[in-house]
Write a structure and sequence with these properties.
42% of the residues lie in helices and 19% in strands. It contains five helices and five strands.
Length: 122
C-alpha cells in the first residue's frame, strides 16, 4: 500500500511540483493550502510524512508543526520543511517545533525524495 504524504504550501505551483515528484515516486499525496487547511484535512487519516512551507497565510509552517505535534495520532509523523527560508534561526525554530529536515526552495526533486525516503517508515 502506498504511503501518504501531506504537502502544505500556499503556492499551488509548488504543491503541483512537489506532488508530481512524490506521486512519480509512488506516494499518495494530500494537499493543504496552509496550516489550518492541512490540519483540517489530517483528521482521522493515516499520514506517513508531511512536507510543509514555512511562510503561509492563516497559519505559518512553524505553528502548523507545533499543531501537528500536539495531536496524539500525528505526534511522531516526520515533517520536512520546504521553504525559501535558509536562516539558521528559522531552522532552529523549525527543529525545536519538531521538523526533522529542512529543504530550501528551489529544490531538486532527488534531494526532496532522498529526505522523504530517509524519514518515511517502511
Amino acid at each position: 500500500m502506498a504511503k501518504t504524504i501531506l504537502i502544505v504550501d500556499d503556492s499551488a505551483s509548488v504543491r503541483q511540483v512537489v506532488g508530481i515528484t512524490l506521486r512519480g515516486a509512488g506516494y499518495d499525496v494530500i494537499e493543504g493550502r496552509d496550516g489550518l487547511d492541512a490540519l483540517a484535512k489530517m483528521q482521522g487519516q493515516k499520514i506517513h510524512l508531511i512536507v510543509s512551507d514555512v511562510n503561509m497565510p492563516n497559519m505559518d509552517g512553524i505553528s502548523f508543526v507545533k499543531g501537528v505535534k500536539a495531536l496524539p495520532n500525528y505526534r511522531f509523523t516526520p515533517i520536512i520543511m520546504l521553504t525559501t527560508e535558509s536562516a539558521e534561526d528559522k531552522k532552529r525554530e523549525g527543529q525545536a517545533a519538531g521538523a526533522k529536515a529542512w529543504v530550501v526552495k528551489p529544490f531538486k526533486p532527488e534531494v526532496l525524495l532522498n529526505a522523504v525516503q530517509k524519514l518515511i517508515l517502511p
